[in-house]
Amino acid sequence: MASTATTLDRLRRDQTATVTSVNIHGPQRRRLMDLGMLPGTRIHIDRVSPLGDPTAYLVRGSVIALRREQARGIHITVEQE
Amino acid sequence: MAEDLPTPSASPPPAANTACGTCVFNNAAQLRALGVDVSGHDHVVALAGNPNTGKSTVFNALTGLRQHVGNWPGKTVTGAEGGFGYRQRHYKLIDLPGTYSLLSDSQDEDVARDFLLFGQPDVTVVVVDATRLQRNLNLVLQILQVTGRVVVALNLVDEAHRHGLALDQRHLARELGVPVVPMTARNRQGLDTLLEAIEQVALGTVATRARRVRHGDDRTEHAVSELAARLRRDHPGLANTRWIALRLLEGDPGIERAVTDGTLDRLSGATPHAVSSETTGT
């Protein structure tokens, strides 16, 4: 299965990805990791707000909404179907 | 059928109407909800867990109180207290605000963190959502680093089963090193097993071996030990100095503040179990 490395803000609605690293620092990093956003976590888009920001992602059975700039700090590999 | 069974307890529980109700094997019948009466308690039990896992439902089931239950975060801001009796003992139960982590820096999560670290409850019941186990285990592991006197209440198993999830609580208990009790607090299912586990951990009749996370290399270990020893010297009686040392090495601003502004002195002098009321008072 081929895969493409990118950041979470570029994930499309029909795609599933795996988190490879969380390139965010300070308390926000801690928070995201406490919510289950860890390297190896599978993630896909749950729903998108009307203006596209924030976007809600499904992570380990829970929905987490992120701003685009936060999503940009999360590195992923997209699974190719 | 149980009428002529010998009762081993010194003071038998209040008589129930049915034979099964008075049976010594019926643990739930030995529960006495004491409401807000926490006088003369033998043990302090803390209820911790992620937001919206059913902590307050467990709290109400045990104490008979009607602590407000709702499914939004931040509902329980300070710890509510209640009492219950089980067999011959009285327990004080503290319903802590939901938290994802002991490492965060938000106010209501601090209440939970401070109590677990410095209130030194005799038993900590971590209520976890069986339908979101992975995410919930983060907090369980963090709590196991600061206390081994833990019972994991695997709540919402009815919902998990409805979602087609199979739960292997024995395996989980073996991995975590503490009792794991599957339950549906809403229907009072599993309450008897939970009470039994709380009593066993409180009395030490079951040996828990909490899973500890190994921290990296010898240099980290050396730094932690050295810093922890200094903390113990400067703040005699302070609990969990290793944990504090690790946070200081991480550069946790909340803990750094606690060292410089005298909070640690207050915590080290504080009577165990009394931390939550003190932190809200200042």
UniProtKB/TrEMBL annotation, chain A:
Entries under Gene3D superfamilies matching the protein: 2.30.30.90
InterPro entries registered for this protein in UniProt: Fe-transptr_FeoA-like (IPR007167), FeoA (IPR052713), FeoA_core_dom (IPR038157), Transcriptional_repressor_C (IPR008988)
MF terms in GO: transition metal ion binding
Keywords recorded for this protein, A-Z: Iron
Name of a matching Pfam family: FeoA
Keyword Iron on entry: yes
Ferrous iron transporter FeoA-like domain span: 6-78
Protein name in the entry: Ferrous iron transport protein A
Source organism per UniProt: Actinopolyspora alba
UniProtKB/TrEMBL annotation, chain B:
Protein name: Ferrous iron transport protein B
Family matches, as CDD domains: FeoB
A Pfam family recorded for this sequence: FeoB_Cyto
Domain FeoB-type G, residue spans: 42-204
GO MF, one example: GTP binding
InterPro entries: FeoB_Cyto (IPR041069), FeoB_GTPase (IPR050860), G_FEOB_dom (IPR030389), GTP-bd (IPR006073), P-loop_NTPase (IPR027417)
GO CC, any one term: plasma membrane
PANTHER family assigned to the protein according to its UniProt record, in alphabetical order: FE(2+) TRANSPORTER FEOB, FERROUS IRON TRANSPORT PROTEIN B
